[in-house]
Design brief:
- By secondary structure, the chain is α/β, with parallel strands linked by helices.
- It has a single domain, classed as Alpha-Beta Barrel (TIM Barrel), CATH 3.20.20.70.
- 34% of the residues lie in helices and 22% in strands.
- The protein has 8 helices and 15 strands.
- Strands 3-4-5-6-7-8-11-14 form an 8-stranded parallel beta barrel, surrounded by 5 helices. A two-stranded antiparallel sheet has the order 1-2.
- Helix 7 packs parallel to helix 8.
- The longest helix is centred in the N-terminal third of the chain and has 18 residues.
- It starts with a strand and ends with a helix.
Length: 283
């Protein structure tokens, strides 16, 4: 059985568990927006009987342009995430980018995320693994766009060598396919699950068009938000244990990756479909 549980919450992912939902904002824009999105998604997941964790980044460190919005930074961002966690009573998902950030991030975030571009940075992965084990959380590792699904076994091994109970979840988010494009090989979902850890799908970032936003002449990443439901449904049908999704009250005005995120009012319909598919696959 491949399953992980958070002792602080009634929250599990893996074999025999409901579809796990990690969803929220791409990046923190304001406390008010975070609360609005978090409350809505929590209510939807409670209605559907799905475990819910709020996600948002405090810093988007890998922007195409130096002038792109990155977020409020770690200090202010963690304060906002702590308030969301206290008010909603749900786990928090956020990423870290530097070794020194691992411990303070794991003190607030129950699910600490390794960005795709950094998943082969041994010291970063080890620092995150040790921090989440100490805090009782999970390490959500985005599979890099340049890695084959079976090659992530080395990441799992690294985490296992520095923790007693390997707390790794792998996340599929597409592979580079030529220039300015990503594709998702759904056969990669069962291939990663065969490594003995839960697997999620980041359907939002999987529809990115890196460096190809026509609004900024390549100064930012484009996207195809109409593809998010297609990727999410396909991945759940292929056996994904959880979904990673980003929403906004007004996606076209989102400060980061607007072309890839969904309107908040689309959440209930999509999650209803995903729950049904997951239940069929796991009968």
């Amino acid at each position: 059985m491949t399953k992980l549980s958070l002792s602080k919450f009634d929250f599990s992912i893996g074999d025999g568990e409901p579809l796990c939902v990690m969803a929220g904002l791409n990046v923190l824009e304001s406390e008010e927006l975070a609360m609005t999105v978090g409350h809505h998604l929590k209510a939807v997941c409670e209605k559907l009987g799905l475990p819910y964790a709020f996600k948002a980044s405090f810093d988007k460190a890998n922007r195409s342009s130096i002038s792109s919005y990155r977020g409020p930074g770690m200090e202010e961002g963690l304060k906002i995430l702590a308030k969301v966690k206290a008010e909603l009573g749900v786990p928090i998902v956020t990423d870290y980018h530097e070794i020194e950030q691992a411990v303070p991030v794991a003190a607030i975030a129950d699910i600490v995320q390794v960005p795709a571009f950094l998943c082969r940075q041994t010291d970063l992965v080890v620092a995150g693994a040790q921090a989440v084990e100490e805090a009782g959380g999970w390490l959500h590792v985005k599979k890099a766009q340049f890695l084959a699904p079976w090659d992530v076994k080395n990441i799992i091994t690294k985490v296992g060598e520095v923790t007693k109970n390997n707390p790794t979840i792998l996340c599929e988010r597409g592979a580079s396919f030529g220039y300015n494009n990503l594709v998702v090989d759904m056969l990669g979902i069962p291939a990663m699950k065969a490594l003995g850890v839960p697997v999620t799908i980041d359907a939002t970032h999987a529809v990115q068009l890196p460096g190809a936003d026509p609004r900024t002449a390549g100064g930012s990443t484009g996207g195809r938000r109409e593809g998010v439901p297609i990727i999410a449904k396909s991945a759940v049908a292929a056996g994904a244990d959880g979904v990673f999704l980003e929403f906004h009250t007004d996606p076209d005005k989102a400060l980061c990756d607007g072309p890839s995120c969904l309107p908040l009012d689309a959440a209930e319909g999509l999650l209803t479909d995903l729950k049904a598919i997951h239940e069929i696959v796991n009968r």
